[in-house]
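A protein record pairs a chain with a discrete description of its three-dimensional fold. The shape at a given residue is found from the number at the same position. Here is what such a record looks like in full:
>
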Amino acid sequence: MVDPILSLKNISFNYLIKNSFFNTQKILALDDVSCEIKKNQKIGFIGSNGSGKSTIAKLIANLILPDSGTIKNTFSSTFLLPNVLSFEKSLSGYDNIKVFINLMIHNPNKEYSEKILKKIIDFSELKDRIFDKVGSYSDGMHTRLAVSILTFLEPGLLIIDENIGAGDIDFQKKTLNHFRNNIEKRTVIFISHNFDLLKEFCDKSYWINNGKILDYGDTEKVYKKYTTYLNTI
């Protein structure tokens, strides 16, 4: 039996919404959620907007902390697309790439680092803008850079929330094709409404609704239950 590299047990989380200067309202986002991911699995999370999918993603990526429950993981690093990397805005895209190479590759030799650096720059299609400060980048350029870094540096767990890629359709297609060719030995969580994407990449999926896990299993079967439910409301 393969042990999970990620385990969420009895996770609950509330967003605090300030209604006025004196009053704060709790909005329940996750209610006693438990799930697990094994190494090299591609797991989907299915659900309507506001169901809790993106909250799970943020918890796994350590962007927020649960109100109760435990999260255990054994992977070295995790990143969430699209709001993934914290770039240093005063540095160029080129220098930011070098920072992440040093952070994510242990004891990289110069030749290997330069090879990865070139691949990331070429994939991003930022051309000469790669030498400009990241603070001058548009949102699309920022995401292109992040996607390109994670495409080649391969974190222990990659979480993709809604979309792969950024910018124009051609860049998204290129990113998808790269994933198709290189995803076998990666652990990935897909959070999406796109059934074709989920079906292609994820053998198993969780269905989450109103902050609760309602089902887990074969992606096609889970998605069918989800759409059947939508037709009843």
About this structure: Residues 26 and 100 are 37 Å apart (CA to CA). The mean pLDDT is 87.
